[in-house]
Design a protein that fits this description.
Distance between the termini: 30 Å
Mean pLDDT: 83
Number of domains: 1
Oligomer: single chain
Order of helices and strands: HHHH
Number of strands: 0
Strand content: under 5%
Helix content: 55-70%
């Protein structure tokens, strides 16, 4: 089962990045780091709650990109909305690229070091 709080956490962050970006777009270093964090967190969530968290996040970002274009939603110029949509779509594409195949494994363990081999 997909955990809504995971999807909401990262989708809100990426939407906020898109909304606050200047004319050059969001800082690539910050967005790349957050994409990496979302991927790592998705592995943990998939192991604990079931598969599909990364795909659900990508789908939510595409949905948010479509919402930006709704009439009357925000009082901004169409070019800015287009840039925001492009950013959210590119993040969704990046999340869908090179998704891990097969069952996810936890990235940490609570077992003592000697027992982890």
């Amino acid at each position: 089962m997909i955990e809504e709080s995971y999807v909401r956490l990262y989708s809100n962050d990426f939407v906020r990045m898109a909304m606050r970006a200047d004319a050059d777009g969001p800082d690539p270093a910050v967005s790349s780091r957050r994409i990496g964090e979302a991927r790592t967190h998705a592995v943990v969530m998939d192991a604990r709650k079931g598969e599909g968290h990364l795909a659900a996040l990508a789908e939510r970002l595409r949905e948010e990109a479509r919402r930006l274009a709704q009439p009357g939603r925000f009082e901004v110029d169409p070019e800015t909305v287009g840039q925001q949509q492009d950013f959210l779509t590119s993040v969704a594409d990046e999340l869908e690229r090179d998704q891990p195949q097969g069952p996810a494994r936890p990235v940490w363990s609570i077992a003592p070091r000697a027992a982890r081999a």
